[in-house]
Amino acid sequence: MKDGRFVVIGDFQIVDKEKLVEMYASLPSEAVRWGMPPYTRDVIDRWVGNLQNLTILIAFYDDKIVGHAQLYKFPHPRRRGTADLVIYLHQDFHNQGLSTAMLTELSQPARSERLHRINLHVIADNEQAVHLYEKFSFTIEGRMKDSYLGEDGKYHDELAMFLILPSSTSPNQAP
Ligand SMILES: CC(C)(COP(=O)(O)OP(=O)(O)OC[C@H]1O[C@@H](n2cnc3c(N)ncnc32)[C@H](O)[C@@H]1OP(=O)(O)O)[C@@H](O)C(=O)NCCC(=O)NCCS
Fold first, then answer.
1. Is the C-beta atom of 99 inside 6 A of ligand 1?
2. Which of 83, 120, 123, 127 is the most exposed place for a label (fewest CB within 10 A)?
3. How far apart are the C-alpha atoms of 144 and 12, rounded to whole Å?
C-alpha cells in the first residue's frame, strides 16, 4: 500500500468466513456511515451463502481480513452476465490505494467470466467511493432522490452506477 504496509489480496474461501464476520464487527459507525448497517453474522452468512453466484476477493493483513470486494452474479437467465458490486475496507486501510488494487484484481475474473454489466448503488455524499467508481469508468445512470436516511437523521440521494465491460459478449452472440 501507499504507506508501505503489505496486504495480500486473494480469493475468499469459506474457512475465512469468521474473519470476515470479525472485520465487519470491528467497523465503527463512521466507517459504515454510507452503508446499510448492522453487518451482522446473519448478513455475512447471507452474502457468502451462495458461493456459486459470487466472486469474492479479500485482503489480508497480519492474518486479519481488512478488505472485502464481491460481485454477486445474478442467476436468473434474464439477468445473465450482470452482477452487483460491493466493496468495504477496514477504516485503518482507507486512502492507501487498496480498493483500487482490489477492483483492478476483480476485473480479471469479471472479464474471464464474460460479465457484461456491473451495477452498484452508492450514496451521493460518499464522494470517495463515487470517485473510485468513476476512476474505473463506472457511469452514473440515475439519482434516487432522498432514498437513504443517514445517521444524521437527514435524507440523502443515492446514485445508480453501471459499467459495461468492453470485451463482453452481447446476449445474442453468447453461446
Ligand atoms: C470507499 C472505499 C471503498 C475507498 O477505498 P480506498 O482504498 O480508501 O480507496 P483508494 O485509496 O483506492 O482510492 C481513493 C481515491 O479517492 C480519492 N479520495 C479520497 N477522499 C476523497 C473525497 N473526499 N472525495 C473524492 N475523492 C476522494 C483519493 O484521492 C483516491 O483517488 P486517486 O486514486 O485518484 O488518487 C473505502 O473508503 C471504504 O471501504 N469505505 C467504507 C465503505 C464504503 O463506503 N463502501 C462503498 C459503498 S458503495
1. yes
2. 127
3. 32
Q: What is the mean pLDDT of the chain?
A: 94
Give the ligand 1 atom nearest the CA of 98: 7
Long-range (24+ apart) CB contacts under 8 A made by 124-128 are 124/156, 124/157, 124/158, 124/159, 125/34, 125/150, 125/156, 125/157, 126/33, 126/34, 128/94, 128/95
What span, in angstroms and rounded, lies between the C-alpha atoms of 69 and 71? 7
pLDDT tens column, 27-49: 999 999 999 999 999 999 998 88
Mean pLDDT over 99-115 rounds to 95
With 0-12 / 13-18 / 19 or more C-beta atoms within 10 angstroms meaning exposed / middle / buried, residue 141 is exposed
Query: Helix crossing, 98-112 with 127-135: angle to 10°?
Result: 40
pLDDT at residue 85 greater than cutoff 90: yes
